[in-house]
Amino acid sequence: MIARWKDFCIDAVDVHAALRFWSVALGLEGQESGNGAVLRGDTPEQTVWINRVAEPRRAKNRLHVDVSTPSVQRLIDAGATVADADTFAWTILRDPDGGELCAFAPPDADEC
């Protein structure tokens, strides 16, 4: 093995909005901490760091999160916006900071 998973980090200009969104989206407890925030689950592998950055996202993500969800609408209600709901069998969303994520919902789930 050359490397192994250590941390999952999300950069955000608005840490508070990112914390609110990702806490709901991932079902993790979170709190602001120093120059960012941290979300924690039952195991260390479920830790997500949100790092405050000064600059907004300027280009397409080269890495993004795919989430399984019972409801795309719940992610929208939590602060996501729809980037593309028609091209694929999943919905491409943007988090409150503009970062892309793909939401996979069951075929009989709500439409956005």
Write a structural description.
This protein is of the alpha/beta class. The protein is built from 2 helices and 8 strands, in the order βαββββαβββ. It has helices at 15-26, 72-77, and strands at residues 8-12, 29-33, 36-40, 48-52, 65-68, 81-84, 91-94, 100-104. Strands 1-4-3-2 form a 4-stranded mixed sheet, covered by helices on one side. Strands 5-8-7-6 form a 4-stranded mixed sheet. Strand 2 and strand 3 form a beta hairpin. The termini are far apart. The mean pLDDT is 90.
Mean pLDDT equals 90
Question: In what range is the share of β-strand residues?
Answer: 25-35%
Structural class assignment: alpha/beta
In N-to-C order, the SSE pattern is: EHEEEEHEEE
Portion in helices: 10-25%
Radius of gyration: 14 Å
- The total count of helices amounts to 2
Determine the N-to-C terminus distance: 42 Å
Shape: globular
- In quaternary terms, these chains amount to single chain
Q: Give the tally of β-strands.
A: 8
Give start-end ranges of low-pLDDT stretches.
Answer: none
Mind summarizing the main beta sheet? 4 strands, mixed
Spatial arrangement of strands, main beta sheet: 1-4-3-2
